[in-house]
Amino acid sequence: MLVALIALAVAALGLTCAIVYTRKQLDRERATRAADEERHRETLAELDQQRKSMLLAAKEEALKLRSLVETENRERRADLARLEQRGAQREEAMERRAQEMDSREDRLGRREQELEELRGGIDAERAAISTELERVAALTQGEARAEIITRVESELTPEIAARIRAASDRVREEADQRSREILIAAMQRHAADQSGETSVTVVQLPSDEMKGRIIGREGRNIRALEAATGVDVIIDDTPEAVVLSGFDPVRREVARMTLEKLLSDGRIHPARIEEMVTKSRADIQLLIKEEGEKACFAAGIQGVHPELVKLLGTLRFRTSYGQNVLVHSTEVAALAGMIAAEIGADEDEAREVALFHDIGRAVDHEIEGSHAVIGAEILARLGRPANVVHAVRAHHYDEEPRTIGAFVLLTADAISAGRPGARRETLASYIKRLERLEAIANEMPGVERSFAIQAGREIRVMVSPERVDDDTAVVMARDIAKRIETELTYPGQIKVTVLRETRSVEYAK
User: Is the four-CA dihedral 444, 447, 448, 449 of positive or negative sign?
Assistant: First the structure.
C-alpha cells in the first residue's frame, strides 16, 4: 500500500514537472516567435525604406537622362539646321559657278572665232609679203633661207667652237668622275670572288671528327693556331675541310703546312701547334730561298743579294690578274733575253731587268705606292745597276723610259701579260679599218691628208690653213669623232687630232 502511494506520489511529481517544463518550453517558443515577428517587421520596414530610396533615385536618374536627351536633341537639331544652311549656300555657289562657266565658254568661242579670222588674214598677208620679197630680191624662199643659214653658221662658228671646248672640258671632268665610280662599283661587285680566290686556302681533313680536335677544349687549339700563324681558321659545315683565310699568302702557306703536319702527327695541343708553326716557317723560308735561287739560275743572273733572292722567291705566293707573279717574271725574263739578242742589246741586263721588274709586288701590301716605284727603290738600295733601276721604275710609265732595256721590258711584259686570251685580228680587217679611218677624215672639207697611226688608235688630220681656221678645226675634230663612232667598230678609243699649220717662207736673194 505504501509502495503504491509512493509510486503515485512520484508519478504525480513527474507529471507536475513535465507540465512545468512544457509550459516553460511554450513560453520560450512564444518569446522566440515574438522576436522573429519583430525582426520580420523591422526587415519589412527596411525593405520598404530601400524600395522608396531606389524609386527616388530612379526618378532622379530618369530626370537626368531626359534632360540629357533633350539637350542632345536640341544640339542635333541645331547641327542639322547649320548643315542644311551650308548645303543651300553650296548649291547657290555651284549655280553661280555654272553660270560663270557658261558665260566663259561663250566668250572663248567668240575669241576662237576671232582668232581664226585673224589667222586667215595673217596667212594671206604673209603670202603676199613673201611673194613681194621674192620679186624684189630675185630669190626664192628656199634660196633666201639657205643664204641666211650660211651667214648665221659663219657668224656662230667661233661660238660653237667655244661651246664645244667648254663641253669637252666638262665632259672630260664628268667622265673622269664617272669612270672612277664605275671602276669602284665593278671592283666592289667582284671583290668577293677575287678575295675568295686570293685570300682563302682549303685544307682537306681525313674525317669530320678532326674538326673537334682542331678546335680543342673550349677552343684552345684553334685560338693558339690563329695567334701563331696570323690567319683565320674557319670551321663550318663544309664536309671534311677547313678554310684558312688571310690576305698574306705566306702566312696562309705556313698555316696550311702546320695544319697538315698536325694532322699527320695526330698530337694537337697549343705547345705542339707553336712547335709546328716554327718548323713550318723555317720550311717556308727555305722554299722561298730555293724558288728565288731557281729563278736567278734560270735567268742566268749571279751575285744577287740574299734579301733580293728572298723577295723574288716570295713572288711564288703572289698573283696578278690570276697569273703567278714568279712564273710571269721568269717568262718575261726569257722573252726579254730573246728580244735583246735579236736587236743586239745586252741580254744579261734585259733578263735581269725583266726578272726583277715586279719585285715590288712582294711588299706592295706593306708599303704604299706603285709596285714599280717600290721595286726600283729596293733594287737601288741593294746595289743593282742604275739602268736596271730605271727600267723597273719606267715599266708602268712612272717615269719616261729612256734606255733600250726599258723598252725591251715594256715589250716583253706586254707579251707575257697579253698572251692568255689575247685579242687576235686578221691583217685584212686591220688594214681595212685603217683605210676607213683615213677615208672618213679625207671626206671633210679643207683636209689635205690624214694618217692613221698607233695601230689605229689615233688619226692625225692635216688641214689647209687658208680654208680652215682654229675654231673650224675644233668643230671638224668633233665631227670626225662622231662619224667614227657611228660608222666603225673598234676596241677602246680612237684619238682624233686636227693639225693646222701656217708657214711663211721668203728667200733672200
Answer: negative
